[in-house]
Amino acid sequence: MSNLDSMQRFTFDNTDVRGELVGLNKSLNSALSKHEYPEAIKIELGKLMAASALMSATLKYEGRLCLQVRLSGDVTLIQAETTNTGEIRAIARYDESKQQDIKEVELQGGQLVITLEPAVGKPYQGVVPLDSNHLNEAFEYYFKQSEQLGSRFWLVCNGITASGFMLQQLPASAESDEDAWDRLSHLASTLKEDELRDLDNQTILYRLFHEEQVRIYEETPLQFACTCSKERTGNAIAQLGFDELMDIIAEQGKISVDCQFCLQHYSFNKAQVAELFPEKKLH
Ligand SMILES: [Zn+2]
Asked: How far is the CA of 242 from the centre of ligand 1 (A)?
């Protein structure tokens, strides 16, 4: 199988084409283990996690890449994020009363929201309509629209492992091989889902490109990790406003919040809520 819990870049000598391979196992299972998702959601979540790792390889700065699939059926949200240091997390929202009824996730008609969140500076957001049930097509469309560059994505998940393969055209340099994109993307199109799922990176690349000068880079490890913290949670609840929060404290004695990704529990007492609003004085 594609190398697990890692991401690996490859390039082709004298061309403006690069690629990435991603494999997820422990990181996927950690993201799934805290929830009771129906199988169909696990599969789409795994594919989206693989895609977020592939896309994070295009980050040119410290920060994270967030993918959201927004839908209007029983499943309303599938979200996956990868930081530039390979920390990955994911979440799905769905109607839990339909737990037994969700046999597939209908993507068509939804939206894919791609957010690049630099650690410093403004986030950039792109929205792509989901015109089919094939997530890979939405990513290919995104790169065509936003960067006028060709890309191909393959995403597979069986609920236990997830694998992703991306081939991407780079802006052309003067001395590069002009036919390379057509030739390499054609070769890549012979990749089968079971090959991506079952073969290691070296074997996949050899099968597809054995007549090409492929350069394989060191693997980057990927691991499940949540970026939640008491401070971030405090900033989030502060959005509700001082009065609303004080009403809840009056009723319940404290504010309790569970991180939706990792289920970490955070609680804020009256004094801690007051600290979120330094301009307010308690009386
Ligand atoms: Zn968390």
From this structure: 24
